[in-house]
Amino acid sequence: MSADTRPVRGSTARTIGARASESTGAHAVVPAQYGGHGRFSDKARWYLPLALTVDALGAAVPVAMIMRATGQPDPVLSAVVAGVAWTGVRASRRRYAVDALGEHRGAGAAVRDWLVLLGVLAVTAAAFGRHPEPSYALAALAPAALLTVVCRMLTHHHLVAARREAHAVRRVLVIGEPSAADHVVGHLAARTDHAYVVVGVVPVGSAKLECGAPVTARLGAVDPSGLTEDAGIVLGAARDHGAELVLVAPGPRLSAARLRRLSWSLHDAGLPLAVLPGLVDVAVRRVELDAPAGLAMLHIAPPSRRGVQPALKSVLDRAGAALGLLLLSPLFGLVAAAVRLTSQGPAFHRQVRYGQGCVPFTMWKFRTMVVDAEERRPELNGANENDGLMFKMRRDPRVTRIGRVLRRLSLDELPQLFNVLRGEMSMVGPRPPLPDEVARYDEVEIRRLSVKPGITGLWQVSGRSDLSWDETLAIDLRYVDNWSLGGDVDVMARTLRAVVDGRGAY
User: Fold this and answer.
1) Cα separation of 33 and 271, whole Å?
2) What is the CA 23 to chain-centroid distance, rounded?
3) What pLDDT, in 10s, does the model give residues 427-455?
4) E strand or H helix at 298, and its extent?
5) C-alpha to C-alpha distance for 40 and 32, rounded to whole angstroms
6) CA distance 135 to 137
7) Please, where are the H alpha helices in 242-307?
8) Packing angle between helix 485-501 and helix 308-327, nearest 10 degrees?
């Protein structure tokens, strides 16, 4: 692939450009004129049969086993109906569509589908005069949603890895003024866990483009009077780069009328168009589209801070913490004994942290450092490996031998269940900061404290201490603004894998 047609993805084009060229060619003409409608045709073929098999058997087998074990009538028939109903519900909600397979939908999507399944089966049972024991029926159907989430996590992990090599992506041509195009290209290139790979830019005007993306044509700074001038330039660039999608970043030189005329030409040629509204890190569920007087308008719902879901989260947090303390009490004793026997000092470590609304509280952990760790901190400031406000060292000399094991397995965090039970923390949330960190927060960073800090969170399942400060802050703000119960369920499911993997735990 020549340098002027190399896609931009990740921090540099690296091998991504080569992989994209293997699948589409440097100057490929995509089928059906410009072709791709984002069907991601090179996704692994096993995604669909795996999803269908897991859903069908995940609903049918537990139903058959539990119905037979409890003496319920017609266990085989019930299993068949459950399997067909579950796959039917999933299919009706487009979970098996090519553009949905392997994509990150969170556990909330599976839970919503499962609730629909319960309604479908309740209506079916009533229609045929069947009245199974509700507790047995719920127990039999529960594995269906869980196995679906596990299957989705497996395929999504595989898909993210594939996209690092530019498989299953959409080749995107960006249109916009250079400053806006630079921002879009940089934002998309910073991560590889999405479907969009920039193959070229058509800037508006003559200003210099800084992002390094290929430029084969430019739109004039002045709105042309005819329909064909902009369209010819964009369609030619799309053809040259094999683009499957035109992504427009509106600006003063891309007026509504000019963009409208361009959209007519692109759609007539069979090339999809997307327009960026200028928002970042806003969950789709918070966005509602309206068109008063034909003017496209996005309504952005505020973050959930009050109401049923936050109240339910608080109840579930405290109930989960109480149950966890009860079930894990033998483990607490073993860990406490191990800490006391392997180093001098108490088993627990207390530390002042800041919680929701900048309210300080005392956080509990199993002690993983020597007793004078806080006093020795200043002499290690020069060895800090974090680029922001946090202090992190991979080989911190203050950490004890047993402490390294506890950190690697995240067992040192377990006493924070007491903080959750007291209402100071949540099971899922941002990392609770230290007072000296909060003292240096600006108005953006202080927004992390709009919700309760958590034992686990997006930070822990996304790399923990391996993340830069900017990455950590972006992840926390994304959680704060887009929190939902379904998202918390997804984080809890991903936490187990993060603990087993141990990446960034030091």
Assistant:
1) 8
2) 27
3) 999 999 999 889 999 999 999 999 999 99
4) strand 297-300
5) 15
6) 5
7) 256-268
8) 30
pLDDT exceeds cutoff 50 at 96: yes
Residues 6+ positions from 81 with CB-CB distance below 8 Å: 121, 124
Contact 364, 416 (CB under 8 A): yes
Is 399 within 8 Å of 392 (Cβ atoms)? no
- Identify which of 35-39, 87-91, 388-392 has the greatest average pLDDT: 87-91
Q: Where are the alpha helices (DSSP H) in 377-432?
A: 401-408, 416-421
| 209-253 per-position pLDDT tens digit | 888 888 988 998 887 876 678 889 999 999 999 899 999 988 888
Looking up tokens 């992990």 gives: 157
**How do 360-366 and 426-428 pair as beta strands?**
unpaired
Report, as an integer, the average pLDDT of 66-86: 91
Q: According to the model, what pLDDT value does residue 31 have?
A: 35
> What is the distance between the alpha carbons of residues 247 and 249, in angstroms, rounded to a whole number?
7
Using alpha carbons only, how large is the chain's radius of gyration in Å? 27
- Site of tokens 């974090």: 386
User: What is the spatial distance between Cα 55 and Cα 91, in angstroms, rounded to a whole number?
Assistant: 11
What pLDDT, in 10s, does the model give residues 256-273? 888 888 999 999 999 999
Can you tell me which residue has the tokens 């410009």? Answer: 34
What's the predicted TM-score (pTM) here?
A: 0.71
Model confidence pLDDT, tens digit, residues 298-312:
898 888 888 888 999
Task: Give the pLDDT confidence score for residue 14 in this predicted structure.
Answer: 33
pLDDT at 44: 87
Alpha-carbon 52 to chain mean position: 23
Q: How many CB atoms lie within 10 A of CB 76?
A: 12
Residue 185 is encoded by which pair of tokens? 């290209």
Please tell me the number of Cα atoms within 13 Å of 237 on its side-chain side: 28
Q: What does DSSP say about strands 360-366 and 348-354: parallel, antiparallel, or unpaired?
A: antiparallel
SS3 331: helix
CB neighbours of 248 closer than 8 A, spacing ≥ 6?
Answer: 174, 175, 176, 254, 259, 262, 273, 274, 275, 276
